[in-house]
Amino acid sequence: MRRCLCPGSFDPVTNGHLDVIERATSLFDEVVVAVLVNVSKKGLFSVDERIDMLEKTCAHLPEVRIVSFEGLLVDFARQRGISAVVKGLRAVSDFDYELQMAQMNHRMTGLETLFVATNPDYSFLSSSLVKEVASHGGDVAGLVPDVVLQRLHERLGRR
Fold it and tell me: According to UniProt, where does the site described as Transition state stabilizer lie (predicted)?
């Protein structure tokens, strides 16, 4: 069985994330969406809330599993026998950072990284930008799944 990881903080999951996850399902038999637990960083949504939104968002994808992890991605992958990571790239700045990470991961354990060019419709999109726009009452409909839009409205209020 060909398995991969799609790691991230997903705070919150965007349509750009979903696009990468869906495309990974066409390449792998199982896609493990790994939600990073970073205790030193306070997110808008708890890890459990992010997992719940991802589960609802990915319910139409039977080959997707949603889990959380702490620590190094290479350790998480090794413990689960997963040898590949799929990452979306929006811009050259993403590539610079992600290439360094991919090379370090490969050096440490042989973990391979596959880069997927982001759909141009979402090339500007990030969770941080979604949160910023939504917190000021801006419309992020069409940029996040409906369940996320609803949760953003509940958390930040509609303006």
Answer: 17
